[in-house]
Amino acid sequence: MSRYDYTLVGAGIVGLASAFKLKQAKPSAKVAIVEKESDVAAHQTGHNSGVIHSGVYYKPDSYKARLCLQGYAELLEFATQNDIPHKICGKLIVAVNEAEVSRLAALQERAKANGLDGVKRLGAEAAKEIEPYVECKEALYVPQTGVIDYKVVSQRLKKLLIGGGVDFYFDESVLNISHDRSGVTALTSKRSLQTKYLINCAGLYSDKISEMDQELRPQEFSVGSGDDLLAGRSEIRILPFRGEYYDLTADAAGKVKGLIYPVADPAFPFLGVHLTRGIDGHVEAGPNAVLALRREGYRWNQLNIDELFESLTWPGLRRIGANHWRMGLEEVWRSISKPAFLSSLQKLVPSLTAEDLVVGGSGVRAQASHKYGELLDDFCFEESSRCLHVLNAPSPAATSCFAIGAEVAKRALTSEVNL
């Protein structure tokens, strides 16, 4: 049986950055990462649009607000030190009607409260100086937003971790975890790993890993101080929301200089269909947000009956559906109807046409839901005596990965003192 000080489950960017921060804090630690896929960044990390978020949307003093700002700076430092291409191009948040204009002021105040500098309101003509093809009433310009390829960041982290003595176990699923006097035993599909402390960064399956931990106590569930929602481990579940993209053709891509976003609906943790010029120069349009038919269901034809049944019978989803069924139907229609998707984009850039769009990729967001019908709007953690579960880490987790990793390392090292 292999023995470690720390074993992490999941080799997405949060798991990798957490291992990186652990090794920084305690270089002598023996660390392992278990990943069910054959390489790092196989799911959420490898399927996002590569945006470096600045923290404009998040509730002040929440984990997302604090860790995004901290993580932003650390990500840029890491990219610079490791020659990883990135660009800070700024973002335009576009208000196309009076209701959206009224929400821009609140967003600007939130940006200020979260420590962002240079965020400013623009009139329609000033907005066109930044994005000439945009039509709007007003806009909010956020200069700190940028783009990067998180797969490249993940591969660099993998190389550094291997060089630092971290062991990777690819193509292995965790089947069970159990506590004993000496630590935690993680039973994988190929072996048993004995570890003093286990860290769950399993993303879309993080709730499944946490359910294996019979020592979890509900009062130890925590969310950011900006969110007063508390729950026990049986009261939350990961819901998979698929986000689909179109790519703009080479000719149409010239209509987007940087990033163009709508004013997000404050009732949801999704930012709406937007336009992003990636680090490689191509422009993505999306994503929408529809319930995936399996946890790793990137297309409508990818179905897992058991996982879909779990999602549909979850009380939280039923309550969300009852309260927001109209928006849910709109998202499904936008998924199956190219004209509907195009219509959302034309609110930002009216001159786009159907011929400008070609089918792109998709991603699946691991979104935690409370059983009473709330979509958790903040990062959250569960802890038992020898385990830490990173249970809700959707966007901006990639931007925040080093800050989340530092939080994970701090908690793990504090728990070690008390073992």
Can you put this structure into words, describing what you see?
33% of the residues lie in helices and 27% in strands. The protein has 419 residues and is an alpha+beta fold. It has a domain at 1-87 and 147-229 and 376-419: FAD/NAD(P)-binding domain (3-Layer(bba) Sandwich). Strands 1, 2, 9, 10, 11, 12, 13, 20 and 21 form a nine-stranded mixed beta sheet that branches. Strands 5, 6, 7, 14, 15, 16, 17, 18 and 19 form a nine-stranded mixed beta sheet that branches. A three-stranded antiparallel beta sheet has the order 3-8-4. The longest helix has 22 residues, at 315-336.
CATH superfamily of the domain at 1-87 and 147-229 and 376-419: FAD/NAD(P)-binding domain
Q: Which parts are unreliable, with pLDDT below 50 for 5 consecutive residues or more?
A: 219-223, 225-233
Average pLDDT confidence is 93
> Quick one: how many beta strands?
21
Dominant shape? globular
Radius of gyration: 21 Å
Summarize the biggest pleated sheet: 9 strands, mixed
What is the overall number of helices? 11
CATH class of the domain at 1-87 and 147-229 and 376-419: Alpha Beta
In the CATH hierarchy, the architecture of the domain at 1-87 and 147-229 and 376-419 is 3-Layer(bba) Sandwich
How much of the polypeptide forms β-strand, as a percent range?
25-35%
In the CATH hierarchy, the third-tier topology of the domain at 1-87 and 147-229 and 376-419 is known as: FAD/NAD(P)-binding domain
What is the terminal separation in angstroms? 21 Å
- Percent helix range: 25-40%
The helix-and-strand class reads alpha+beta
